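Fold it.
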Amino acid sequence: MDKFFERAISNVIRHGDTDIFPFPIENHIFFDKRAQCLDLLREIHRDFDGNLNRYPPAHDAALAPVNYTGFRWATQMDPLWNLYFLALVLSISDAIEHARLPVSAKRVFSYRSRWADDTADIFDSGSNWRDFMECSLEHAKKFKFVVVCDISEFYPRLGHHRLENALLQLATVGDAHSRIMSFLKNYSNTNSFGLPVGGPAARILSELVLNQIDRLLEMEGITFCRFADDFHIFCDSDEEAYARLIFLSEKLLRTQGLQLQKSKTRIMSSAEFAATNPLNPNDGDRSPTESQERAKGLMQLSLRFDPYSPTKNEDYAVLQAEIERFDILGLLREELLKSRIHIGLARKIVAAVKYLESRARDDAITTMVDNAELLYPIFSSVLTVARAVFDDLSPAAQLTIHKKIIGLIENHSHVLRVDLNLAYALRVLSCRHSPEAEAVLVRIFKLSTSSSFLRRDIILTMAKWKNWYWLSDLRASFQSLSVAERRAFIVASYSLRDEGKHWRQHTSDQFSPFEQLVQRWASEKANQSGWSIPL
C-alpha cells in the first residue's frame, strides 16, 4: 500500500483535499512531515478496525451554494482519514477504470483515472467537462433532439449495497473493498447510502456505480454523453426522446434506486441545445457582440497554472499575456450590470483577475467584494482569489476589503450566512488584524458550535494575531473541543509561550498519535524566525 499512500499524500499536498472547502492546516503538515504521515497511514492499515474505533474520523459538512437559491451538501473529511480513504480507492482505481466504458468510446468524460507522477494528478486532463460539452454539441448536429437530465441528490442517495456489489465485480485482490465499505458505513452513521461530496475518492467510486447505467445505455444502442451525474441523450424524434428518457429513468430506479431531477429534465431541439449550452455566453439568436466574442474566447482559455513547474515563471508570463487580450475588467463590469450573472463566465473572470497587473487587480477585487450579493453563487471563488493576492494589494484595497467583509458579517448578509462562504471570508480577515475583526471572530466562535472548521480557523487566526488572552481563556475548554479544534489549539498554544509550554507538558500524554505529530510540527515551526501560521 505504500505506493498508494505516497500518491494520496502527493495529491493532497499538490491539489488539496477538496475543491469546495478551504484547505486545512494539516495539508502543510503532510508536506513538511511526509515520512511521519506515511508511518501513521501504515499504522492505520496495520490495525484498521482498532484505529477506526479508537480514533474515529471526524468530518465536517456544510451547505455549498450552486446558484442563487440552490445548495448541495458538501463534506470536508478528517484530514488523516481522508488520506487513507483516498489511498484505498487509488489502490483499485486502475481496476475501476478498466471496468468502465473506454475513453475512446467518447461516451463518459468524467473522472477518468490516469495517475501522473509529475503533477500528482489522479484524473486524465484530456477527458473533462469541456470535452463532454464539445462532444455533445457535435452529436447534436447529427440528431434532431437532445434529452438533458441529471440525477437527483446523486452523492447523498448513492446506495452502499449497490457500490459494494460493483466493487465485488472488480478483478482485484485484497480487502480494499471491505475497508472502503467499513469507512463509508462510519461516514454515513451506519446509514446504507451516501458518499462524501468534494474529494476524488468518492468521484472514482461514483463512476463505478454509474458504469452499470452506461453499459445498459450502450447495449440498447443509445447515443449519449455523460459527465458525472449529467446525461445528454441524442434522438431523431420527439417520440424516441421520450422512449430514451423512460428507459434511463427506469434503469436508474431499478438498478440504483436513483431518480432524475424533474426540474432539470428537458427534451430540447438540437438548435435550442446548441444555443443555450454553457460554453456559449451569447444571448439568444442575436449576433454576438465584441464583448461576447471576448467572453467566448475566455471560456475556451485554460487558466491552469502549475506553481511547481520548472518553467513556472515563463508559464506565468505567457498566461498573463493571454489574459490581457480579453479586457477582464470590461467583462467583469458587463457581468455586474446583469440581474443574475452567467455563473460559468463569472467564475472564469474571477479566476483570471489573479493574473492582472496590480492596479487593475486592486480595482477588480474591491469591485467584486462590493458586489457580494450579485456574485453570491460564486462568492467563495471571489474570496479565494482575494486571499491569494491579498498581500500584493495596495493598503487602501486591503482596508476596503477588510471593512466590507466585517460589514457583511455584522449586517447578517445572506451571502455569509452560509458557513462555507463565511469560512473563506475568515481566511481573508485573517490577513489583517483589527479590533473590529477580533470582535467578529469571538462572536462567530460562540455561535458556531456545530461548525468546527470555522472554530478551527478562528483559533488559528487568534494565534496568528498573538491574541494570547483569548487563547489562554480557551485553554481550560480543551477537552471539550472537537478534534479539528484540538489540533488547531495545539498549534496555537505556541503563541502562549511559557503558559503553552506548561500546558503541553501536562496534557501531551492525552494526545492521539496524529496530535503528537501536529505538536512536533508546530514546535519546529514556532522556532523558525519569521514563521506565521498559514491560513
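The CA atoms of residues 366 and 399 lie 10 Å apart.
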